[in-house]
Amino acid sequence: MVNNAIRLLPKLIAPNPLTDTNRKIAGPIYDLALVQAAVAQHGVYVINDSAQHHMVHSFTPELDEEELAAFILALTPVHFHASEWCQTSVKMKIDCDAYAMKWDRMNRLEWKYADEIYVKFGFKERHPVCIIVRVHPS
Fold it and tell me: Could you write out the three-class secondary structure of 5-53?
């Protein structure tokens, strides 16, 4: 179960309707070290159809959930990009943090000459698995 301690911000209420003008959140929302602990223990789940599509069709070889977890475990606060509300393919609204990092896929580590990967993730209340809403090359 995800403890509220993982959050740097208090639990937020999603705007309704969710639009481009009200989706931004002054973040980060989640404590990255605690996110990484949750990912190390429980892994990740790619929920959105578009993220699943990018994992298969935008990366050679395909990006799998194991590598995606390794990517998240290698992030540092300097890789933080933004926070915003996201709607999933199953119409769930999740407050998410987005990060981008240049990632050497062969050695599974940050490398300044590698291609950059962008990931956006959040957590469902009382659910320990990190939910991936978006992942693609930057």
Answer: HHECCCCCCCCCCCCCCCCEECCCCECHHHHHHHHHHHCEEECCHHHHH
